[in-house]
Amino acid sequence: MNALPSVATASFDPDVVRRQFPILDQEIHGRPLLYLDNAASTQKPVQVIDAISGYYRRDHSNVHRGAHALADRATAAFEKARMDVAAFLGGAKREEIIFTRGSTEGINLVANAWGRTHLGPGDEILLTAMEHHANIVPWQLVARFTGAVIRVAPVTETGELDLDAWKALLSERTRVAAMVHVSNTLGTVNPVAEMVACAHAAGAVALVDGAQAVNHFAVDVRAMNADFYVFSGHKLFGPTGIGVLYGREALLEAMPPWQGGGEMIERVSFEAGTTFTTLPWKFEAGTPHIAGVIGLGAAVKWLQGIDRDAAAVHEQGLLERVDAALAGMNDIRRIGTAPGRVAVASFLLAGAHPTDVGMLLDQQGIAVRAGHHCTMPLMERLGIPGTVRASFSVYNTIEEVDRFLEGLDKVRSFL
Ligand code: PMP
User: Fold this and answer.
1) If you take atom 5 of ligand 1, which residue's CA is the nearest one?
2) Rounded to 5, what percent of the chain is helix, strand, coil?
3) 3-class DSSP assignment, residue 268
4) pLDDT in tens, 104-146
5) Pairing of strands 344-349, 387-391
6) pTM: predicted TM-score of the whole model, two decimal places
7) Is 374 a catalytic site residue?
8) Which of 144, 187, 265, 381 is least surrounded, with the fewest CB atoms within 10 Å of its CB?
9) Architecture of domain 49-304
10) Which of 38, 99, 101, 103 best tests ligand 1's pocket when mutated (most atoms within 8 Å of CB)?
């Protein structure tokens, strides 16, 4: 393989970064791929691909229970990745980092292990109207089981949380407030540190869904003071099928396990019953996604090797350009215009269904997402069937923004 530019020192050059993503170097329908579906899943740098491949080529074995060299190597790499993730989240403890299949599984874990033991009839779960289904449905399931009630804070026309209304819904009945850090549909960044503080003042625990946050800016779970924070590897330049639940140690300690099986026990006996192992493994039943964890560790290290502030400035530059252009088009209705949002442009083109716009862009090699983006209640609130969503990442360029806008122009000519 060709030598790749090093990212060992924190720097940010979008062209250097871009060359580290082999998938971007291809044609779709005879045109260079223009990938603007980053909110659905980001692409993977060669460092992540190589870490996964290297693991399977050299080090694969099951973890934690082997008495041989490969098992030791696999375990060491697996647990090192956990420490890398802990550092990535601002210095969490090893005990507080639980590997899951993704954000969805992290929220289901909390809703079940914490929710079923702490919620009862009349207790309230406070959500927002901009949640992804992953932060709605697990709570609906646990509410049905426990008799708890879901309250939903409204969203304004510009796609911002109505913070006063959210605060007004907090009461002594609120047991948990679960909120999205960054909206996948709107790009809105919620004031989660303030919301966590308010939730705590009301006696509630706070879960933050960071699926769309961690890839755009540095997150410090301690500074935020969240009780639980979840994210997915595949939106963070890492593999699918792996994610992280950060949980405050004392809370995790007090929670019963969710799934049972190997790896999470201390002793199993039909007569004496089963005792469970310590954190974090108490919540990691069964053989884990070892390659996924190692790939995620590589993704986190890769991100730490670039200047994240400069990367954020680059992304904001892309957003400003696309925003300015879309705002000047009479047939475009922008959905989500909150100040300070991340590089997500959701919109409707007059006279065209979002799905058709997505298809016509795809024919030009431009990948966007069209639909409800797993935020049906938000679509209902805004009175729209869905949006076209162009979501940008570190490897996108200003030239690509212009090509996207030209592509949109071409879509018009088909209508
Ligand atoms: N929350 C948000 C805000 C998301 O954007 C997503 C993924 N679209 C999820 C949760 C769920 O993530 P996953 O499917 O990786 O579990």
Assistant:
1) 184
2) 40, 20, 40
3) coil
4) 999 999 999 999 999 999 999 999 999 999 999 999 999 999 9
5) antiparallel
6) 0.97
7) yes
8) 144
9) 3-Layer(aba) Sandwich (3.40)
10) 103
